[in-house]
Every structure is written in structure tokens, then in C-alpha cells.
């Protein structure tokens, strides 16, 4: 499966050697907790996705965020190249918006977290469906040491056992199963469990103007939205 393959090649990934940071860390967790009037939008930029999205209009990243910077609480940048067309240079480029930047990658090591920091990232992604509890605990604690927040994401209810809650953690529910790449929404079943940790909860994937009023978004502190916004969808609730 594609995501397993991406993780398996992490040891071959070229990591960011020199520091591209232009500013101090901005906490994504703080931004979501302070967001007024409902969940904060984390707008994701990607050029393509194995689940079928492609940035047909080849939206320029700076033009894109110039247009939406006033309505978003954070930015998510795909940095994986092969399947998402990503690059750390995208993260470096969007530091100018002074919004917290989530490095959306298949992170499995401390060196990848350090690389995310050097690229200008403020937070990083850990996926419970692919990393075990001890690995997540180690990486959350490393991120905390260098001041970064971790978005600890779950899809399969069984993988919630890998959650390591700490003060720098934001929890995410991914409506998409990354093992099948299909939308399989267990958010109703999962919400109370995730909320019980007392941490911000972000709803992720497949959110658009047609379903946004059916997803009980008022319960969430954040919405991670990529494809629909990149395709010009107008999101309002
Ligand atoms: O483009 P969408 O359907 O709005 O989804 C955005 C984001 O949730 C999705 O890209 C995502 C959520 N978790 C991930 C983990 C890896 C790669 C991608 C993701």
C-alpha cells in the first residue's frame, strides 16, 4: 500500500540540512484554541494526492494563500515529493503569512522532525494507524523539547491505543482510511474518545461546501481542508 511504501522509504529521504526558518515557532495548538466563532480552518496545499486530487489549475502557492490568509487559522504543507508533489520549499515560502505551519509528511523519526523545523514548520504529523505507541510517545516528546506541536492523527478506532497525549498534542480524526485511500467516516463513533483527552480535535479530509453542515463541525477546534479549497470551493457555515 502506498502509505506503507512511503514510510518504508523514509530512511532514503533527503532531509533539510540548513536552517530555512525565518521566524520563531507559532503554536498551531494555541491558534486553534484561540480561534473564535467555531473551528479554525487549517488550509492544506498540495499539488496532487494518491487519492485522486490533482491541482489542475496549478494554483500558485503564494497566490493561493494571499487569497485565503484572512479566513484561516493555520497552513498545512505536504512535503512528500513522489505521491503528493510536495517540497520543503513550500513550507519555507509560506512562513511570511505568520500562520502556524503543519508539515504534513509521514514522519517516523526525530531527524524528520528536525528537518520539518529547519524547513520552517511549526507542527508535524504523526499517524497512529502506522506508528506504535512507543514511537509516537518518543516523537511527541522530541517535538515538545524543540517547541513544536504534534498533530496525532487517527482513522481506525483500533489505532487510538497509540495516542500519546501531551501538552503539545493536537488530535486529528482522518475521515479517509490511508490504507485503502477510501473515505470511511467513523467520526461520530470516534469523537467522544478523542475529546476525552481534553486536547483540541481536528476533523480532516473530504470536507466541502456540500457536507460541511452535516459533519457537526461545531464540536471541533479545527478543520483540515485541502482539495475542496484548492479547487475553488467556498467553505462557509
Ligand atoms: O484534500 P482533503 O480531502 O481536504 O484532505 C486534506 C487532508 O485532510 C488530507 O490530505 C490528509 C489528512 N491526513 C493525511 C495524512 C497524510 C496525507 C494526507 C492527509
Automatic annotation (TrEMBL):
InterPro entries: Aldolase_TIM (IPR013785), Indole-3-glycerol_P_synth (IPR045186), Indole-3-glycerol_P_synth_dom (IPR013798), Indole-3-GlycerolPSynthase_CS (IPR001468), RibuloseP-bd_barrel (IPR011060)
Gene3D superfamilies according to UniProt: Aldolase class I
Signal sequence, renumbered to the chain: none
GO biological process assignments: L-tryptophan biosynthetic process
Gene Ontology terms for molecular function: indole-3-glycerol-phosphate synthase activity; phosphoribosylanthranilate isomerase activity
Swiss-Prot/TrEMBL catalytic activity: 1-(2-carboxyphenylamino)-1-deoxy-D-ribulose 5-phosphate + H(+) = (1S,2R)-1-C-(indol-3-yl)glycerol 3-phosphate + CO2 + H2O
Pathway where this protein functions: Amino-acid biosynthesis; L-tryptophan biosynthesis; L-tryptophan from chorismate: step 4/5
EC number: 4.1.1.48
The entry's keywords: Amino-acid biosynthesis, Aromatic amino acid biosynthesis, Decarboxylase, Lyase, Tryptophan biosynthesis
Record-annotated Indole-3-glycerol phosphate synthase domain positions: 9-233
Pfam families named in the record: IGPS
Domain of life, source organism: Archaea
Family as reported in the entry's similarity comment: Belongs to the TrpC family.
Protein name: Indole-3-glycerol phosphate synthase
Annotated organism of origin: Ferroplasma acidiphilum
Species classification: Archaea, Methanobacteriati, Thermoplasmatota, Thermoplasmata, Thermoplasmatales
Amino acid at each position: 500500500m502506498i502509505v506503507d511504501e512511503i514510510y518504508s522509504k523514509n530512511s532514503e529521504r533527503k532531509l533539510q540540512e540548513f536552517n530555512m526558518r525565518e521566524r520563531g515557532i507559532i503554536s498551531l495548538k494555541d491558534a486553534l484554541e484561540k480561534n473564535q466563532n467555531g473551528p479554525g480552518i487549517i488550509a492544506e496545499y498540495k499539488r496532487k494526492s494518491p487519492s485522486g486530487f490533482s491541482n489542475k489549475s496549478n494554483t500558485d502557492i503564494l497566490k493561493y494563500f494571499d487569497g485565503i490568509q484572512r479566513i484561516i487559522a493555520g497552513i498545512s504543507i505536504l512535503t512528500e515529493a513522489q505521491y503528493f508533489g510536495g517540497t520543503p520549499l513550500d513550507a519555507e515560502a509560506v512562513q511570511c503569512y505568520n500562520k502556524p505551519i503543519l508539515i504534513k509528511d509521514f514522519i517516523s523519526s526525530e531527524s524528520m522532525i528536525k528537518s520539518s523545523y529547519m524547513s520552517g514548520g511549526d507542527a508535524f504529523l504523526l499517524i497512529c494507524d502506522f506508528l506504535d505507541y512507543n514511537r509516537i510517545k518518543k516523537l511527541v516528546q522530541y517535538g515538545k523539547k524543540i517547541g513544536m506541536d504534534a498533530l496525532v492523527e487517527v482513522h481506525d478506532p483500533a489505532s487510538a491505543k497509540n495516542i500519546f497525549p501531551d501538552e503539545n498534542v493536537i488530535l486529528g480524526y482522518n475521515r479517509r482510511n490511508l490504507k485503502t485511500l477510501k473515505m470511511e467516516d467513523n467520526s461520530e463513533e470516534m469523537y467522544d474518545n478523542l475529546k476525552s483527552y481534553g486536547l483540541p480535535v481536528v476533523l480532516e479530509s473530504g470536507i466541502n461546501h456540500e457536507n460541511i453542515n452535516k459533519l457537526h463541525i461545531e464540536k471541533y477546534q479545527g478543520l483540515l481542508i485541502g482539495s475542496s479549497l484548492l479547487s475553488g470551493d467556498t467553505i462557509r457555515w
